[in-house]
Amino acid sequence: MTSESLELPETQFHDLDHFIAIPRLGSLVLSPDGTRLVTSVATLNAKSTEYSTALWELDPAGEKPAARITRSAKGEAGASFLASGDLLFTSARPNPDRDDDQEATTALWRLPSQGGEARMVLSRPGGINGVLTPSDADSAVLVAEVLPGSADETDDGERRTLRKDTNVGAILHSGYPVRYWDADLGPAEPRYFAMEEQAASGRRPTVDAETPLQLRDITGGAGATLRNATAVISPDGSVVVTSLSIPMGRGDGRSVLARIDVATGQRTVLLDDPGYDLSPGPISPDGSTLVVHLSRRTTAEITPQQTVALLSVAGGELTPLAEGWDRWPSPSVWLPDGSAVLVTADEEGASPVFLIDVAAGAVTRVTTDAASYTNVVVSPDGGTAYALRSSYEFPAEVVRIDLAGRKVVTLPGPVDRPALPGRLERVETTADDGQEIGSWLVLPGGADASNPAPLLLWIHGGPLGSWNAWSWRWSPWLLAARGYAVLLPDPALSTGYGQRMIDRGWGQWGKAPFTDLMRATDDVVTRRDIDETRTAAMGGSFGGYMANWIAGHTDRFDAVVTHASLWALDQFGPTTDASYYWEKEMTPEMAAENSPHHHVENISTPMLVIHGDKDYRVPIGEGLRLWYELLSRSQLAADENGRTEHRFLYFPDENHWILKPQHAKVWYSVVEHFLALHVLGSTTDLPPELGL
């Protein structure tokens, strides 16, 4: 799967070097006057070892081509428009106005609306994590981290210098959690800062000289409550509404909503419901009403559920929004007249845009295609929305949505759609209990009754999720380019099919999710363009759990690939980064009943185990224990050198995802090699970087 000549491959999915080089769109912001759209584009560096992100401007009218507006080796991110039209962003690139040696930290930059080069407007030793800008006021609130013992910014810088100079990385914890996905939490804690101009100290040297800025902490005493928080700012910039993580004891915590007065820093809890974790959605254009996202707190008997409601920014009672709608909405933006809210929600293999009428609560689907929409913004006149759209037929692109006519148009962007090595179909099956199970089926070019394709069952993670959007990390088209058909089912616990789909799999992963997957496989292998004699199963995270469960409960597949997978649930629960959540899904008895490691003696299928050492969500102990127990207890016999047909691909410096481009190439190359050996009965070259 690597280039051996200067000839272009049939598609970019036929060669991993070409695949990892495809540029990738990210965020989307719209200027307050509606005339400028800015997105981020990640491109591969010259060494093919990391991606650098730049900002690009698109024409909302779709008449002009996209234009790149930032350029640096360090890249730019976090774009946000000021009310004046100037663009703020964050970057660790050097400050051209200084010629001394600078330590690279993420600083705040400002790109004038009238043109010219960007300038660094604020830098601090701890860097800047993000920025909130109101639509109607030329101000900003920054998100940045401070060491908890710091008295002020100067003190914080001195403490950071001391830790660096003495090479101390130790962290003293007094609460939980201590890790998150792939990050060690602490000792620094997030804070919100109002960005203000310093008092004038004399005549400006030139008319365009920047007024020095300073930061004022508006969240003093917040402690660790702002870790992983979500925040929004009112249109006039006077109020920030944020989630706060409140410890409950015994390692547990819940999210409440708090209102912060930007002028005074006064913090008031707006909403605290012990039955829900709360996060803020957008604030209405008149600044009076907040959309609240509610996520029901679970137990082994209470399943997850997500809803939205309205709340006065001054506090009061919740008003349900779209009550009774059997979907999980994610609020995006208000219409400018305050009459409706645009949301996205998973729905049957897609994630469309919906409009919720605030007065009536009625829900209208705005986009009708089988695609996933994110980063939705709306024009000042309320007639047009813009969003990123993707599906399993194309990666993210910027689109314009006519809200009245429901028409979606792709805007001229910085990246063309890649050609695909096959076609996509939607297939349906019916579970034993009557539940409809939807799947996407990726078919390679040329697959037909005379040339049936081997089948790869690919199981999504989550488990609360859906195969409904393009994924660079889990791309079925790379396997389709090698001749495989790839089945992407949404079994029990998948989102977008109603609450019953969640309820039927909660706390019993080895039951309905497993039987749904097997039924979907049973149905698809009856097709004449699928070769039922050559099949494999694979998945990551929860999908890896299911791959492990499948390996211990059926020998129907020729090979199983399991990535970042849960193996021994009694071990996983206390060691994952969010043990308190896991305890709410399964009792110890349920975990024992659903743990794959109890069935290792039944495994007779060759397995490829893949794990990253920096994975905190599914710690490396799961992969290590799975590997040892496969070698010592599964049915595959070892040769005279102690080798079985199982393999373990280990990444010492990767996490739950394999993010480095060079490692993604290794990942897919080894997967292809393993599948070719056991499914096709052939061989492919392993990457020479493995040194084998």
Task: Summarize the topology.
Layout: H1 16-20, E1 24-30, E2 37-44, E3 51-58, E4 67-68, E5 76-81, E6 87-91, E7 107-111, E8 119-122, E9 130-132, E10 141-146, H2 153-165, E11 179-180, E12 183-184, E13 189-197, E14 213-217, E15 231-233, E16 239-249, E17 252-261, E18 267-271, E19 276-283, E20 289-296, E21 306-312, E22 319-321, E23 329-334, E24 340-345, E25 353-357, E26 363-365, E27 372-378, E28 384-391, E29 394-402, E30 407-410, E31 422-430, E32 436-444, E33 453-459, H3 476-480, E34 485-489, H4 499-503, H5 512-524, E35 530-540, H6 542-553, E36 559-563, H7 569-575, H8 579-583, H9 588-593, E37 607-612, H10 620-633, E38 647-651, H11 661-680
Parallel strand pairs: 33-34, 33-35, 35-36, 36-37, 37-38
Antiparallel strand pairs: 1-2, 2-3, 3-4, 5-6, 6-7, 7-8, 9-10, 10-13, 11-12, 13-14, 15-16, 16-17, 17-18, 19-20, 20-21, 21-22, 23-24, 24-25, 25-26, 27-28, 28-29, 29-30, 31-32, 32-34
